Amino acid sequence: MATLYLIFIIFLGGAILTYYAGKLGSVLQDIIFLATILGATSLFYAGVHINDFMSFNPGGITLTWGINYFGWLFSLIVLGLGSLAAVYSVGYMKGKKRRGYFYFNFILSIMAMLGILVSQDLISFFIFWEIMTWSSYLMVIYNGKDDQKLGLKYFIFSAIGAYAMLMAIVMVHSVTNTFLIGNMIEAYPQMSLSWQIWIPILFLTAFGVKAAMMPLHVWAPGAYSSSPMAYTSVFSGALSKMGIYGMVIILVTMISHLPQGIWFRETLAWLGGLTAALGTLWAIKQDDAKKLLAYSSIAQLGYIITGVAIGTELGLLAGLFLAVMHALFKGTLFMVVGAIEKQTGTTNFTEVTGLIRKMPWTFFSALLAIIALAGIPPLGGFVGKWMLYEALITSNHYLLVILIFFASTAAFLYCYKFLFGFFMGQEEKEWEHVKEAPATMVVPMVLMALFMAVLGSWPGIILNPINNGLVDLGFVSTYKHLWDTSILFNSWGNQVVLKPLLYSVVAIFVFFAIVLIWKGFKGTRYVSTKDISSSGEVPGENENLTFSLGFAQPFLRAVGPVMKRQIDRYYTEFADGLESFFEFLRRIYTGNGQTYAIYVFVFVVIVLLFKDVLF
Amino acid sequence: MVGTPVLFIAIPLLAAFLIPLLGMIWKELVRIVPGLVLIYLLILAVNLLDHVMVHGPIIEIIAGWAPPIGINLVFSAFSGFLVTIMIFLGLLIWLYSYRFKKNVGYEPAKKYFLLLMMLITGSVGIVLTGDIFNMFVFIEITGISAYGLTAFYTGRDSAEASFKYLMLGSIASTFLLLAIMIIYSQLGTLNMADIANRIHTMNPTYKIISLIFFITALGIEAEIFPLNGWAPDAYSEAPGPVGAAFAGIVVKASVYAIIRYIFTIFDVDGAFNFLIIIGMLTLIIAEMAAIRQEKLKRMLAYSSIGQMGLVLVAFGFGTEEGVYAALFLMLNHAIIKSLLFFSGSYLVYNSKDKLIAEMNGLGKKLPITSFLFALGAFAIIGLPPFAGFWSKLSVLTAAADKNMIFIMSLILFVSLIELVYYLRVVNRLYNSKEKASSIEVKKPTANALITMLVLGGLILLIGFYPDVVTGVLHKASAALMDKSQYIHNVLSINQ
Lengths: 615, 495
What we know:
The complex is a heterodimer of chains A (615) and B (495). Chain A has 615 residues and is mainly alpha-helical. Chain A has helices at residues 2-21, 26-47, 69-92, 99-118, 122-140, 150-176, 181-187, 193-210, 220-226, 229-253, 261-285, 289-310, 313-344, 360-374, 380-394, 398-423, 439-457, 460-472, 499-520, 553-558, 560-564, 567-586, 593-609, 611-614, and strands at residues 54-56, 63-65. A two-stranded antiparallel ribbon of chain A has the order 1-2. In chain A, strand 1 and strand 2 form a beta hairpin. Chain A is globular, with a radius of gyration of 26 Å. The mean pLDDT of chain A is 83. Chain B is mainly alpha-helical and 495 residues long. In chain B, helix 3 (77-97) crosses helix 19, helix 11 packs parallel to helix 17 and helix 16 crosses helix 18 (446-464). Chain B is globular. The model of chain B has no long low-confidence stretch (mean pLDDT 86). Classes of the chains: A mainly alpha (615), B mainly alpha (495). Chains A and B meet through helix 5, helix 6, helix 22 and helix 23 of A and helix 6, helix 8, helix 9, helix 11 and helix 16 of B.
């Protein structure tokens, strides 16, 4: 089991080496960086056995490391996405400043996430959780332009979560006298009712912050959009899943024992639904691709939370399947934005258009990712969404279905905006020189896009590990009837029922497309994309014709009242209020020696007066 | 054994008096001798602590009179641990300030090192002595040298700060003397063990009043709210290393005194809850004040006060775990806060007003110093895997075991405030967007850099491998908790 130690030593040593290797040459730095991540990843899958645990005692506290099936499922997200993003980073960071800083924090984030998954005790869980927090914080402030204090906001919210978790951890410790997660789960049913309620609330607060759940999500848009895109794909794709990971553990092992657990589930499911709906609306409003994807991430995490919160077998399967899918398509999309940013220098839809011919592979990945995100068959996103709807309907959450349905329909708007805004539309002179991104950036994107397509037809690749994970958590085994959980699956269980139908549709579509192109080939007249007129008016040379300008205005006007109140503003006001209160309190220290002397005597008199009460 | 506890007092005191004379021989001796003395004392302290951990406390009788009549020194695991921290910190302060300012001439350097040696003598004496009047004498020695050090920069502001300190310090002495008089008039003894042995025979009213006077007097020195008015001014006007000395040495000695009175000498149970109350008040008010500070050193001063409040709260739990947590906090505070004072001094070295707002973009100009400051900030907030995390965890565990959920949540809330103001400074250091500070930076001297690197290394060492200190801490906390053993050890020495 020493392999696990070795992996963490590789990560730590690699991080430090990479940091200093920059002085020797950037190629060497890239190689060490990739070797660290890929080496540790392959070592993990080659040398670490599932359900093989080891313990050690630093500072008199028993810590246990090892991975179970549930952790292993998430390790796929962390290490899979992490490795691809690492390859991507090499291309993305080419020619950028502070590469050592970036690589250092990248490796530490991956290490911390893996650490969370292998921690079988609360202390190492917390330590890795915090390492994950500060390494991602350092990424958020990578650009050194913390205009709106985004980094600080992220850190404060993470700290609120972390402190809530720390409180729960020490509360558990005072009952069980150990920090082992297994002992906590065993001892939970015997705790007093108030503790049975408070401990999950505190844990869920911590996990809700990382999973960007309403109303703890306010850090997310800024933090996601201001860290470098190569990192954001991990940040949004994998790091937020750590919140889901913890949430599922708490829900399955604790809330299931609680008779009042139904309230937890309903509250969480509704918070998830609201997160999905509002996140979608805000995403539609954005003109910047980074911001759009950031809000879209929040919305997608909302679906996942809803799925895992309703807690039926199908719900958990749906939530976790969506979690994997989200890691894939949001990872890809952030990479796409990164590639566009790298090649054009901006991520604003109203400026960049018509990249389809210049960056075809990027377009291809973006297209597949968007199809998966929107939940259109035959990609994996469809399977997940279908399972989520089915889970909600079979558990009688009809209102919630409407909310989720509204959110995912509205999501088409921003999907369209994203795809059309960047890749279609008029080809501006300004972007004529743009070329496809380098291979190190394109290959990871395309690989992930293809994997999404595969998952749409063979969801069993992911559903089996999910099932094993749930069994490991003590969930009723779905092994025998995994393929009966949803009507979507065929009786062999490894494919989607609709597959033959879908492929027939696709085949017919492709056939006619080819025929039409063939037929119309001869009569084609080439025009520039600017050769248009609207309402009989020929647009001027410098007129901004981008599709995304003023996109979906009537829709946004209609939903305007919902978006009027921003929870962010309440937090800011609260913080300002606190600070003025502190300012008032600070005046106790007047700077006047006489006042201080008076304080001393007042203190003595008060204590003497109340000495019978106090002592 | 290589020496006895009395050397901890005799040698630095002697060195302090010899410094001016040695300076007449060779001026550089003024700077060298304190370092040699402190190195020797550190070796001695570590050796004795090692001995004490195995063989039990060393009790030394001064001048041949056995207790309870004579004065005795007690070097137990608890007091020995504190002495070791103080001497170690003293050594680092010496190393750091060896050439802190190039332009500091012979005359100020002489005074500085003389006062520093006196300060260490007094503080170590407070911790080692077993006699309450003797402790009063040491508190006076510490106080006088601290007033002098506060006024080291002979400007108007430092003189004012020093005067405030002096004024409150005199009030403290008055109360301390009153308390000692009450005890002596009632029990006719000044020996701690003897008092502890017979305290239950004392009239409860007198007992409580003397305890209150003790807490007031020592609370002024230990920066307890609302008695700590002197502290922010003194910290911000004194040189950086002196701030570290106040936080790491003087205040620790005063806290020790309070703890000794409450845990060993008096048998008043309500005192523990009182410690929690005043500790919480100190913590909350100080951290709230810290967030609104504009000057770096003032911010660090308030933060330091707050940490001491937390230490008192941890002691107030009255359990062995609480004491363990408190000692761990004191150790971490000594290391981390010193690092913050040391690196912070260089960050605002040439600035006139020492404002936090002037620190923009220093991360580029002073990379190592800024990095170490950030490390210290992360550590003091309690982020793992740095040293501060383990002490914060042990405080919270101790609170949870006492079922004090409300106290726990308050501590965490205050930690959040702490996090905000430290991160604001760190953010500024690495913020490249705003206009970088135009003030010329001062690169740290080699010895200062070594000092800071040693402290940074310690933070990482304890963070990754807390076992290096936990053994000593457990022994030390057990030694404090065992009151009857202390009394027995001291009083049986004459047989």
